Amino acid sequence: MSDSWTWKFSIAAGTVGSLVLSSVLALTAATGIALLLVLVFAPVPTRAEYAAGSLFPAPLQDSDFLYDGAPGEALFDLGRNLFFDPILSGNRNTSCGTCHDPANGTSDGIALSIGEGGTGLGRNRRTADGVTERIPRNAQALWNIGAIEYRSMFHDGRVEPDPRVTFQSGFWSPAREHLPAGLDSVLAAQAMFPVLSASEMAGQKGENPVATAVAEDRVTDAWDLLAARLAATPQYRAQFGAAFPGRGDVTFAQAANALAAFQTQAFRTDASPFDQFIAGSLMALSDTARAGADLFYGKAGCAGCHSGALLTDHEFHAIAVPQIGPGKGHGADTSYWRATGFGARTEDEGRYRVTFDTDDLFAFRTPSLRNVALTGPWGHDGAFDDLEAMVRHHLDSTASLERYDGNAAFLPPLDKVIEQTGDGSELIFRPLNPERRAAFDLRDDWVQNTADLRGRIAMANELAPLHLQDQEVSNLMAFLASLTDPTAQDRSHLIPTSVPSGLAPQPTRPVGPQPEG
What we know:
It is a single chain. This protein has about 525 residues and is α+β, with helices and mostly antiparallel strands. The chain contains 18 helices and eight strands.
C-alpha cells in the first residue's frame, strides 16, 4: 500500500520558501516496510501567482464592488434609513430589514418569511395582523450583494441587464417597459420590486393606495406614491437633496440607487479565514478545513458551481431541492384545487418561468457561500434547516428528495390567515373559516407529498450521485465554516435608532435574551 502527504509553511516573511515533505511507504513481501524521505525546497509563489496558478480565487478588492466599495456618505446614509424604515411598505409596518436582518445573517432564519401582516422578528415572527400566504421563497442573504459580478437578481434571475436595451431602464424585469430609467445597477433594479409584492411589503388591495395600485397593475403609480411619501417627509427631502444634488425631485429610482449603495458597503464581507488564506496566509485554514478545500475544489466538485471569489457561478441549476410552501402558482397541476377548493397551483418551476426553456425547469441561481454557516435555512425555499443536511443532499439529490421530511423545515405557525372574497362589487379580506384551515395548511407539503409533482423535480435534477466518507463530509463542513467572516456574526450596529418617517425602525433590537420558536 502507499500513502503520501504534503506539508507547506512559510519560512520567513519576504524571502520565503516552502518545505515539501513527501513520504512514500511501500510494503513488499520480500523486504517488509521501506521508508523513503525526500526533502524538496521551492520558492513560495506570490499572492498573484498563487491565485493564478490554482483553483482558488483572487482576493476581493474595492474595484470588485459598485462605487469601488465606497459610495458617498450622503448616498449611504439615505440608503441606510430607507433600508430600515417601514415607510416603504404599503401599510408602513415592514421594512427591507424585517426579512434581511443584519443581526441574523442578513436573512431572517426561517424557511419562508412572513412579510406584510406579520409581527416580531425571525423565528419569533407571527401573524397577529393576518396574512394571505407564506412568502414562497427563502429570503436571500445579502453578503457581498454589491459585487459587480452579479448579473441577475432573485432566485430565478428575473431581473437582469439587457444588452440590447429593449426598454429604457436597460434591464429585463417583470415590470418590462414600466421600469424607469436612471437605475445605476442590477442591485438598484432589484430594489424596485419587494415594495410591489402584496405578501412582502405592499399589502392587500383596498388597505392602502400603494397596494391598490399594485393590484390594479399600476406599478408606476405605486412607485410614485412611495416617492411622494418620501418627498413629504422633511428629513428625507433634505437627504435626497444631499445624495442627488441638483435634481430637486424625489423618485423611487433614486431611492433604489441609495438602497443599492447602502447594501454594497454595509454587507461587504471579506475577512474570513478563507480570505486570509487566498491572500497568502497559508496557515489561516486548519488542517481539516484545508482538507475540505481540497475536496471542494477537487473530488467533491463543489467548485463546478460554487466558483470565483463569491463562490457562485451566477448560473441556474436544478438540484432536486424539495419544495415546501405555497409555490409560485406555476405548472398545470390543479390537484390541490380539486382536493381543497382553494384556487391555487402549488409548483415553483424556477428559472423556467423567466426563460421558458425546458432546460431551466426547477433551476435556481447558485447561491454565494460567503458566510454560509450564518445564512440558513438553505435552499431556494429554506427546505433544509441544517447545513450538513444541505451538503449531504448534494451527494444523492434525488434520493434525498424522496426521503425528505417536511417537518425538518422551520415554518413559523400562521396564527391568523385571511382570504380574499367579495361582497357584491366590493373586494374584501376576512379571516379564513376555521373549518377550511386544515385544507389551507396542506399547501405547505402538497408538492412534496404528491408523487407526480415530486417526480417532475427529480427528473430535472442535474447532479450525479457522489459517495463521500463521513470524515470527508466533516472536512467539507470545516471548509464551509472557514468562509465565515467574524464581523458578519452580528452587524446590528447598522440599524439606526430612529428613521426620518418617525416610525420605529425595523428590525428593532429586542432587549435581553429572546426565545426561539
